[in-house]
Write a structure and sequence with these properties.
Elements lengths: L12 H8 L6 E4 L2 E4 L10 H18 L5 E3 L4 E3 L6 E2 L3 E4 L10 E2 L2 E7 L5 H5 L1 H6 L7 E5 L6 E6 L5 E6 L4 E4 L4 E4 L1 H4 L16
Parallel strand pairs: 4-7, 8-9
Antiparallel strand pairs: 1-2, 3-6, 4-5, 6-8, 9-10, 10-11, 12-13
GO molecular function: endonuclease activity
InterPro entries: Nuclease_put_TT1808, Restrct_endonuc-II-like, Uma2
Keywords: Endonuclease, Hydrolase, Nuclease
Length: 204
């Protein structure tokens, strides 16, 4: 196994797939370089992070049963359209037939979800979203807080403009990408929410 400290450079997608199979953790491929998932290596994932992602995956899968759309976990890569870059979102949904022909990644999700943490929030809102929005099929990009009842939706309207909608307690979330409305409390039910501490920061 190649030590993660000895990460290769200038990888082709095929070399990246083969290399990552030998690793203990997932890595993204950006401009030929490999990075621990999320580029900024996260501190240990929180319980709420995992529960929120699992809850949304189950929620979307049940809603889309029989539709031909597919809901994926964080184990499925997304290929950034027109590039050799690959990322791992927490949740993705594709309804595009072109994604049925690939086995190691999808390219045309209509919905992407990232559950936020202090170590990845800036990247999820900035560089990662700039890559994702290159995908013409993407309609909704959902950013889910794991410390408070708060969800931000980046929605592409019919004119191709991205709108930002902030959802708080009492709001109903509307995902036009998969024709689904639900109260925000349905996502957070039963969870104990606590603010992140100063130790939950981006590691240098």
């Amino acid at each position: 196994m190649i030590d993660a400290k000895d990460k290769p450079t200038n990888l082709t997608p095929e070399e990246y797939f083969a290399w990552e199979e030998q690793q203990l953790e997932k890595h993204e491929l950006i401009n030929g370089q490999v990075y621990p998932m999320g580029i900024y290596a996260m501190t240990d994932g929180s319980k709420n992070h995992s529960l929120l992602a699992a809850r949304l995956i189950t929620f979307f899968s049940n809603h889309l049963e029989g539709s031909g759309c597919e809901t994926a976990t964080s184990d499925l890569r997304i290929n950034i359209v027109g590039t050799n870059n690959y990322t791992y979102p927490d949740v993705s949904v594709t309804c595009d037939d072109r994604d049925k022909t690939t086995t190691q990644y999808i390219t045309y999700p209509c919905l992407i979800v990232e559950v936020l943490s202090a170590s990845t929030e800036a990247y999820d809102r900035g560089g990662k979203f700039r890559m994702y929005r290159q995908n013409p099929a993407l309609i909704d990009y959902l950013l889910v807080s794991s410390t408070s009842i708060e969800i931000d939706l980046y929605h592409k309207n019919d004119a191709g403009d991205w709108l930002i909608i902030n959802y708080k307690p009492g709001d109903t979330i509307e995902l036009k990408s998969i024709n689904l409305n639900f109260p925000i409390e349905q996502v957070y039910r039963g969870l104990t929410l606590t603010p992140e501490t100063p130790t939950d920061i981006i590691r240098e």
